[in-house]
Amino acid sequence: MRHILHADFDAFYASVEQLDNPELRDKPVVVGGSAEGRGVVASASYEAREFGVRSAMPMRTAQRLCPHAIRIGARFDRYREISQRVMSIFRDLTPLVEPLSLDEAYLDVTSIVAENRRPADIAASLKRRVKHELGLTISVGVATSKSIAKIASDMDKPDGLTVVAPGDEKAFLAPLPIRDLWGVGPKTAERLSSEGIETIGDIAQQDEDWLRERFGKHGAQMQKLALGQDNSTVEVRRETKSVSAETTFAQDIGEPEALLEVVNRLSQRVANQLRRKQLQGRTVKLKLRLSDFTTFTRQKTLPYAVQSADDLSQFAGELLRAELYGRRRFRLVGVGVSGFEQSEADPEEPRQLRFSGFG
């Protein structure tokens, strides 16, 4: 039997700001860009959440809901520093740690569970250590699988500890809304609701063939998860699937030269990330959002892998030019790379240049 923890900081960015500046404690704090620049909320303290402020909400909306909220610009270097420290604490407990983001991770503690050291005790001890060493609180879910541990960690925030005992998985899940289940997004939830399926227990009770007919393989997987059946393992090293960078403009842009300059800058940022990770990719992607919020991506798969800013800028620029017609104006541009091939060369070793030719 496995014992999995899902540990998640509470309102991470906002909590770090309150930790570093005691004057912000017990006050509504939102971290993110300015309302004038079409900023969005990256994190909201629990004091701000009481007014309905949530992550990913436009900052303008957040300030309307909570006019006295204190907005702080994000300090990602500081958040990464805290993240590295907490991941070190996690790895002191078990080498089986799978970071999901800066502020959350799975831990497989199966090997350290003993008769006098229950999973709940391990989780409580971990919470105390993080609080003592970092001054921040984490919420922890304890279960026999990753999917249930993640749901459990969100049950009693902030500073929560929720334990789903072995054998109680199905009963724990049954009354929860369908949106809490892994893989159930807004569209799937809407389709399920239209069929009268509102809880995870409702999914568990459906006929598997019925679910397959409507949702394909995803339907069968949903039912397994609804029944508490999840054998996914904690992956110590998560494979990088893509590297990207994007920017949202303060004002919509339609001028080709200005847009191409943005693509050049984003390509440089992506290239820097690729070099640090020693990655090369064959698929170059361009993400665009129009002034009416229509969002779409275009991509080009190459016969060879690329890493340099020049290559990324060239191919992303070609994708962009194909979208510059009519009176289109854009509010967001992003550049990304996927289809990776691991670079075997030392990142500091000079590489032979690939000539693209002239013209």
Which helices and strands appear, and what pairs or packs with what?
Layout: E1 4-9, H1 12-20, E2 29-32, E3 41-44, H2 46-49, H3 59-65, E4 70-72, H4 76-93, E5 97-101, E6 104-108, H5 119-134, E7 138-143, H6 146-153, E8 161-163, H7 169-173, H8 186-194, H9 200-205, H10 208-215, H11 217-226, E9 242-253, H12 256-277, E10 279-290, E11 295-306, H13 309-321, E12 330-342
Parallel strand pairs: 2-4, 7-8
Antiparallel strand pairs: 1-6, 1-7, 2-3, 5-6, 9-12, 10-11, 10-12
Helix pairs in contact: 4-5, 10-11, 12-13
What would you note in describing this structure?
This protein has 359 residues and is of the alpha+beta class. The protein contains 13 helices and twelve strands. The chain has helices at residues 12-20, 46-49, 59-65, 76-93, 119-134, 146-153, 169-173, 186-194, 200-205, 208-215, 217-226, 256-277, 309-321, and strands at 4-9, 29-32, 41-44, 70-72, 97-101, 104-108, 138-143, 161-163, 242-253, 279-290, 295-306, 330-342. The strands form three sheets. Strands 5-6-1-7-8 form a five-stranded mixed beta sheet. Strands 9-12-10-11 form a four-stranded antiparallel beta sheet. Strand 10 and strand 11 form a beta hairpin. The longest helix is centred in the C-terminal third of the chain and has 22 residues, at 256-277.
